[in-house]
Design a protein that fits this description.
With 364 residues, the chain is an alpha/beta fold. It folds into two domains: 217 residues, 3-Layer(aba) Sandwich (Isopropylmalate Dehydrogenase); 136 residues, Isopropylmalate Dehydrogenase (3-Layer(aba) Sandwich), CATH 3.40.718. The protein has a ten-stranded mixed beta sheet with strand order 2-1-3-12-11-4-5-10-8-9, sandwiched between helices. Strands 6-7 form a two-stranded antiparallel ribbon. The chain is globular and about 65 Å long. The structure holds glycylglycylglycine. The site of glycylglycylglycine (GGG) has 11 residues, from α4 and β12. Its EC number is 1.1.1.83.
């Protein structure tokens, strides 16, 4: 019997632990679909792209890869990066190729503290901490503009330019996204992050747009903080944070800091959204391919599974998304932990535990 709604998902596990964690997330999603009694289903198409594909073809993805992806409802991504390909080639050849060309301009990266997971922050034991980093995902420092030049200078004198691009439209759309998100949260506050004292053009434009947009959200508290001060604030005053909006590079760094503070990069989820839905959005754990533990079966699947929950939110399946989050909390709370968060469970054991924790919620 066909499901009422079948979501077509492109799965791109890509490199290293990406393969294990995408498989784990797919199991969790398929468990939910099986229990939905025909309300929804997932139709998976797996793409073999990544660094092994590069070794065979000299490309990170097929030439017509974007055309192959464009009609899917979503992309479920693992991780990119392996020693056979320079990191900038693998990143631009696959992940950034997708995020840029599908205008996935909002990268949402929640920082979640889970029961049973020890945070390096002492105050996490006694304080409710929960914030989300909203990363401008289409321009800024990752606009890919610049070049290298040796002309007239000779070896040893090369110059390189890496230009950050800030457009008023790009700043405004990510800020409105952050303000709209803040309105859905218990603490209605947006912290804008720049380095506008040193970077006096693009980031001053960012600050100006932030002030202008804030006027439309009088119910949302605001602050503008320099990125160095915000790094300290993540550690010293994280209870003051709700939504943190920052440029591509700054938010990339801050979200890694946030997930490390929550206990591990292996826990962090992310959604690369094209909010207009002209293109598929992409859901992936924040972590990379982790070559040191790839193939050992011990990677933490929680970042990928929590990213699957973000995908369900994108589809409007909010109840099921919350069920995944509750199952993850039950799992870590019961002491089922992978090595990165102080346990010795395997990827499969954690996934089993999450699927088991889901089952009672699925009985109708
Ligand atoms: N799953 C995320 C991933 O593979 N990240 C690799 C990486 O280096 N990303 C840089 C970025 O987020 O722009």
């Amino acid at each position: 019997m066909a499901a009422e709604k079948t979501f077509k998902i492109a799965s791109i596990p890509a490199d290293g632990v990406g393969k294990d964690v995408v498989a784990a997330g797919r199991r969790v999603l398929d468990t939910l679909a099986a229990a939905s009694e025909g309300a929804f289903a997932f139709e998976w198409t797996e793409f073999p792209w990544g660094s092994a594909y590069y070794a065979e073809t000299g490309k990170m993805m097929a030439d017509d890869g974007l055309a192959q992806l464009k009609d899917f409802d979503a992309i479920y991504f693992g991780a990119v990066g392996w020693e056979n390909v320079p990191d900038h080639v693998s990143l631009w050849g696959l992940r950034l190729n997708i995020t840029q060309n599908f205008d996935q301009w909002a990268n949402v990266r929640p920082v979640k503290f889970l029961p049973g997971v020890t945070s390096p922050l002492r105050k996490a034991d006694t304080t409710e901490l929960d914030w989300v980093v909203v990363r401008e995902n289409s321009e800024g420092e990752y606009a890919g503009l610049g070049g290298r030049n040796l002309s007239g200078r000779g070896p040893g004198n090369e110059v390189a330019l890496q230009t950050a691009l800030f457009t008023e439209k790009g700043c405004e759309r990510i800020m409105r996204f952050a303000f709209d998100l803040a309105r859905t949260r218990p603490v209605k506050k947006v912290s804008s992050v720049t380095k506008s004292n040193a970077q006096q053009y693009g980031m001053v434009l960012w600050d100006d747009v932030f002030k202008r947009v804030a006027v439309d959200y009088p119910d949302v508290e605001t602050e503008s903080v320099l990125v160095d001060a915000m790094s300290a604030k993540f550690v010293l005053r994280p209870e003051d944070l709700s939504v943190v909006v920052a440029s591509n590079l700054n938010a990339d760094i801050l979200s890694d800091l946030g997930s490390a503070l929550a206990g591990s990069l292996g826990l962090a989820a992310s959604a690369n959204l094209n909010p207009e839905r002209r293109f598929p959005s992409m859901f992936e754990p924040v972590h990379g391919s982790a070559p040191d533990i790839a193939g050992l079966g011990i990677s933490n699947p929680i970042g990928a599974i929590a990213s699957a929950a973000l995908m369900l939110d994108h589809f409007g399946l909010h109840e099921q998304a919350r069920q995944i989050e509750a199952a993850v909390e039950a799992t870590t709370g019961a002491g089922h932990l992978t090595r990165d968060i102080g346990g010795n469970a395997t990827t499969d054991e954690i996934t089993d535990a999450i699927v088991d924790a889901l089952r009672p919620a699925l009985v109708r």
